[in-house]
Specification:
The chain is α+β, with helices and mostly antiparallel strands. It has a single domain (3-156), classed as Aminopeptidase, CATH 3.40.630. It is 34% helix and 30% strand. The protein contains five helices and seven strands, in the order E-H-H-E-E-H-E-H-E-H-E-E. It has a seven-stranded mixed sheet with strand order 1-2-3-4-5-7-6, with helices on both faces. The radius of gyration is 15 Å and the shape is globular.
Length: 158
């Protein structure tokens, strides 16, 4: 399965995939994706746009509460902002392939890979997925005015 960098021509389809994944991820606009394309350290798609993953390094002016939490907790990290696999392509291991790829990318730059998983409402599939890769909890945080809670996770890359 091919993994490649996202291109400007992919953004409309990426936006559609993102919006189909609501409420598991936050809504985006095309301008948000254009900004990710410029600033993300990792913005790749898998297959024929069967999914994508966006990873960020520290130091960006990004309004995500979870990104800010990691920015305050760690000097150096690689943050997984979102991974989305098209519903029709799930169960084929594409998420694992993207995670293996970002782990190798991040390992060359930083001692840790970070992300969050919803704990309220719970997302047990995502938590189990991250635990299989060795991610461990490093904190929790209330988001969206206290309507959600996330478990903040880190994977030691050293």
């Amino acid at each position: 399965m091919t993994i490649r960098n996202a291109l400007p021509k992919d953004l409309a389809n990426i936006l559609e995939l993102n919006q189909q994944a609501l409420p598991h991820v936050n809504s985006l606009r095309i301008g948000d994706l254009e900004r990710f394309l410029e600033q993300a350290a990792y913005f790749k798609i898998i297959g024929d746009l069967d999914g994508f993953l966006i990873g960020l390094r520290p130091g960006l002016d990004y309004s995500s509460d979870n990104y800010r939490w990691f920015s305050e907790a760690f000097e150096d990290f690689f943050y997984i902002d979102r991974i989305i696999i098209d519903e029709r392509a799930r169960g084929q291991g594409l998420g694992s392939l993207l995670y293996k790829d970002i782990i190798e990318t991040a390992r060359a730059h930083t001692p840790r890979l970070t992300c969050e998983v919803n704990s309220r409402p719970p997302n047990p599939h995502s938590m189990a997925f991250h635990q299989r890769f060795g991610f461990a909890p490093v904190g929790t945080q209330q988001t969206e005015g206290g309507t959600k809670e996330v478990t903040l996770l880190s994977l030691d890359l050293t």
